[in-house]
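Shipment paperwork, digital attachment
Item: protein structure file
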Amino acid sequence: MNPVVTAIIPTFRRPALLERSVGSVLAQDYRPLELIVVDDSSGDSTPEMLAGFATLAQAAGVEYRWCTVPNGGPGPARNHAMKLAQGEYFAFLDDDDAWLPGKITRQVAAMQAEPDAGASFTRFVHVGKEDRPKPSAESMQDGWVFESLCTGSTRAHIQTLMISRAAFVATGGFGALRQWEDTEFELRLALLAPFVAVPDVLTVITPAPDSISREAGLEGDLRRDREKLDFLAQFVAAHGRHPRFSMMAAQTLRARIYDEHIKHLLWLGRVREARAAHEQAMSECGPHPLLQRLRRKLLRARVAGWFGLRVRRPGN
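Attachment content:
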């Protein structure tokens, strides 16, 4: 008999989007399948919307339940769902995204073929860019992926992720971070178990304009950059002695965060702050190639400032 898979969707104030995400779970061909949706105290019409899916789930042969929890962010919401779950495997989906047909079937097969794997992940597309799946098939890296998660060569987005119950128990679940909770979880998981890559494109990501990652524009980006740098320092302090931890990889991740932070400052025209951040980054990360490449951009921004101009954000 097939193992039970539990699909988990945390949601907060997006009732209009749930039909797509929930529908993509109910359309999966894998059974037995359980779906748990956790309302993070939306305080709107979300409960009524969730209650309305019961009949559809029953017709699809999917065990369905939903609940409301005190507002705590997506990490605690997922943890609550996993405490209720009956599945041997857990698969995660955000309320603004969708799975393509066959995703669960393909991932269960991949994980059963690699019984030591704690997680599997798939390729994905962004809405409107369906002809450009990410990452490229030849760049899909799996196995012990802590280093490649840090460098970005492994892109195991939470919407693509399936984990075993044993992996969840080993990690202790998600943290209470309001952002990057998925990255923090995956980095911890990558120290404990190998991942298996599924090269098929099986997930559709639709960035919502009200997502946490888009709040307050560039000023919000700056705040989130600082929070990521603080998080990474805490992660290194907590896990730096683990035998699979790589300080070089962690420094690369830190350089990637600084790279984005400095660009955000430049796009705001805050060149002096960007130069100071670059000096700080070099002192913390060393002469990383990402930071070396920023020198030219900083020089262009400085010259542009002499004429009252600023470096423009790509696409603007």
